[in-house]
Amino acid sequence: MAASALTATAQNPIKVNQVGYYVNESKVAVVEPTGKSSNFILKDHNGRKVWSGKAVRTLKSPFNDKVRQVVDFSTVTKPGTYTLTAGKNKQTINIAEHPYNEALKAAIKAFYLQRTGTDIEAKYAGAFARKAAHPDTRVLIHPSAASPKRPAGTVISSPKGWYDAGDYNKYIVNSGFTIGLMLQAYQLNKEHFEQIDTQIPESNNNVPDLLDEIMYNLEWMLTMQDPDDGGVYHKLTTPNFEAFVMPVDCKQDRYVVQKSTQAALDFAATMALAARIYKDYPQYQPFCKIAANAAQRAYAWAVRFPKNYYTQQDNNSKYDPDVNTGTYDDNDADDEFFWAATEMYLTTGEQGYLEQARAFAPKQFTLPTWGNVAGLGIFQWLNQELLQTKEAGKLKTCCMKKSLKTFCDEDIKALATSPFYSIFGNSASDFIWGSNSEKCAGRGIAQMYQYALTKDNTYRKAAITTIDHIFGRNATGYCYLTGFGTQRVMHPHQRISAADGIEEPLPGFLAGGANSGQQDAKNVPAYPSSSPDESYQDHEGSYASNEIAINWNAYLVALLGFLK
């Protein structure tokens, strides 16, 4: 999209889901004050009027003085492309039976574009092809990770995997969370994911592309386990973040650093879960045996070292070189023990793991995040009930389910007064770093679990409002999925997109979204507003609002996987 076109659409006061609306679900637009009108008209591609009406309500923003009109044209159910008019302003509307299939495909394909150590081929990536970099066949043991059989400076090989975010490092904690979230969604939505063809090198091998893509990162994760004691290195990293250059131009040495309890447990949970899912595919059965064994050894290491938390600042005071990349640090491992024990029991059937899961089980539901994976443990026990496995009921989930329902119902109450008709974005606390992921899409996933448990369509409708926000019905007007929408994210905080010389960014990535913290304010142009829901800028330097990350994409993949 040309810059002039982007500038023009950026000012459109009609905020809509720019990807599309379901034929038989609600269709709502929100009109900003500058687009105020007393009557709204929807016309089809031939210019025929198919609907007209007034705003169903007018609501004031909780963050500023803006008053917005809510327009509901849900009675239009015929698939097609339409134009919504508000005074002198117009906005394109798409209605389809399956409006998000291409978005889901792109969000999964984005992981291929994040692969390390392999050529990204034009056959699969088009203009975004690039030469292999970071083979990681020469990775050094950092002094913080040294052991008798692997002293500091030992060279190991740790190939494959995905770049974690806008940087070029690989992190076990976030990889484990990312894979766990997607594989759990896959368990409940196999038929949907099996239909997605992302056109990657492994396509057409009789394995769903999602599983093939995840395997590329699982194989890297296996290399991060110390073969001597079963511990797992926290991350594979350069000492400092690379400049905004292409991967082939990176020159720093790469290290594996300190083994951590959280890394070991997230690794154990992920490997145990993968061992169950991939056993149905003959080509991956050898991996399953290796993964199950690796999971048991990692869990045993965590039991021996239950509070060996990653401490980057302390490490830097003791060892050289200093490491100043992402920490993924966490001072509580109870949630990791719960998730890991859950997956280990379901894979091995060993009573000891069940007792551990019971001991660490939370009383209340919380949205799963990389720093609090208890929600993944809860989701897995709910999966057992929904799939009616023999393990269902082995852990009491009544309090968890009651808490989940309360959480979902409280969010739904906000719809009546939500200026953007969404369960997300009605409180300043929603707009954190990566708000589009855990706070927005995460809420949608919670609603879909409640829908799966009750078959009450109220919850599915609530989940869809989070997608409406992500795809453009929000205060910024941006469709936050790169490559999609009429007002697109063009400059994500991602080194490849910034350095590859291509105007369009790599497609299929979810931008972080509005962040009231504005932690990067001193390093980027002035934010357009101090309002929490407008604290976003499409600038490659804005790591606080415009970065991409594998875990953020995982939320979107999981949510769209539920929305068949």
UniProtKB/TrEMBL annotation:
Family: Belongs to the glycosyl hydrolase 9 (cellulase E) family.
Repeat in keyword set: no
Gene3D superfamilies, per database record: 1.50.10.10, Immunoglobulins
SUPFAM superfamilies noted in UniProt: E set domains (SSF81296), Six-hairpin glycosidases (SSF48208)
Protein's name according to its UniProt entry: Endoglucanase
Keywords per UniProt: Carbohydrate metabolism, Cellulose degradation, Glycosidase, Hydrolase, Polysaccharide degradation
Cellulase Ig-like domain: residues covered: 10-89
Active-site residues, Swiss-Prot/TrEMBL: 538, 547
Organism: Xylanibacter brevis
InterPro entries: 6-hairpin_glycosidase_sf, 6hp_glycosidase-like_sf, Cellulase_Ig-like, Glyco_hydro_9, Glyco_hydro_9_Asp/Glu_AS, Ig-like_fold, Ig_E-set
Catalytically driven reaction(s): Endohydrolysis of (1->4)-beta-D-glucosidic linkages in cellulose, lichenin and cereal beta-D-glucans
Keyword Thylakoid included in the entry's annotation: no
Enzyme Commission number(s) from the entry: 3.2.1.4
A GO molecular-function descriptor: hydrolase activity
Domain Glycoside hydrolase family residue range list: 100-560
EC main group: hydrolase
UniProt-annotated stretches for the region Disordered: 517-540
